[in-house]
Design brief:
Number of strands: 6
Structural class: alpha/beta
Protein name: P-loop containing nucleoside triphosphate hydrolase
Keywords: GTP-binding, Magnesium, Metal-binding, Nucleotide-binding
Shape: globular
Number of domains: 1
Strand order of the largest sheet: 2-3-1-4-5-6
CATH class: Alpha Beta
CATH architecture: 3-Layer(aba) Sandwich
Organism: Phytophthora cactorum
GO molecular function, one term: GTPase activity
Radius of gyration: 18 Å
């Protein structure tokens, strides 16, 4: 089973994101079971069942319990995925930052969370992210940069995020290895389905081919740009991950 490393400074929302991932997987499994039962009880010719059909719910409509404690150690989360796959997500607390490198070699892919609502922490988060990216054994592993907490009343302006995190450079330079970026809310679940899809790829092979482009925003020629909360729900905040 492949192992992913979940990193980020204190308060970035690592535990809440993992809680949301588990909740969405459980809900999807429950929905599939309900469909099986419904089909078995009424197998009419007009009914159809597909276990791969996505459940019908709005992205970002599932709020999980926000009460968490700062991670002071290492937590392991087992996450079942589509197609019978699974992965282990290893969450290492921000307080263990000096110990992060000891977990680099054993991971197959990694996620780094940035709190989009904490302007005072942004520079430090960027420093740590690029510090990890400078390590060869992490540089070429699949990585997902998660811009979290977009549901907050205050969110850092997109141009500031782009500048501090050098997002254009990340997407343009092949030297950074396979990198993808997603804007999400671990609290409401917005775009968490995209993260699950990314994890499905990472758990399958740990590698992303050239057919799996870096995530930015569709329709913006590879440039990273995020949409504000004032945009319609139909606007995508990430590129769809290519299957």
């Amino acid at each position: 089973m492949r192992t992913g490393l979940v990193l980020g400074l204190d308060g970035a929302g690592k535990t809440l994101l993992l809680r949301q991932l588990i909740a969405q997987v459980v809900r999807k499994q429950k929905t599939v079971l309900e469909r099986i039962v419904a089909f078995a009880s009424n197998p009419c010719s007009t009914c159809s069942y597909s276990p791969d059909k996505d459940e019908e719910f709005k992205d970002g409509d599932y709020v999980v319990d926000p009460n968490t404690q700062p991670s002071v150690g290492v937590e392991h989360w087992s996450l079942p995925l589509d197609g019978g796959k699974a992965c282990t997500l290893r969450e290492v607390g921000g307080q263990l930052l000096p110990m992060w490198p000891s977990y680099f070699e054993s991971c197959h892919f990694w996620l780094f969370l940035v709190d989009a609502s904490n302007a005072t922490q942004l520079a430090a988060a960027a420093i740590e992210f690029f510090s990890i990216l400078s390590v060869d054994e992490m540089k070429y592993k699949p990585k997902l940069l998660v811009i979290n907490q977009i549901d907050a009343s205050f969110v850092i302006d997109d141009t500031i995020l782009q500048t501090y995190l050098c997002l254009d450079r990340l997407l343009a330079e092949p030297d950074s290895g396979p990198v993808q970026i997603v804007k999400t809310s671990a609290l409401t679940g917005e775009n968490v389905a995209q993260i699950l899809k990314w994890l499905g790829h990472a758990a399958s092979s740990g590698l992303f081919s050239g057919n799996n482009p870096s995530i930015g925003l569709s329709g913006f020629s590879g440039r990273y740009r995020t949409l504000g909360r004032q945009n319609s729900a139909s606007d995508m905040r990430v590129h769809p991950i290519v299957d």
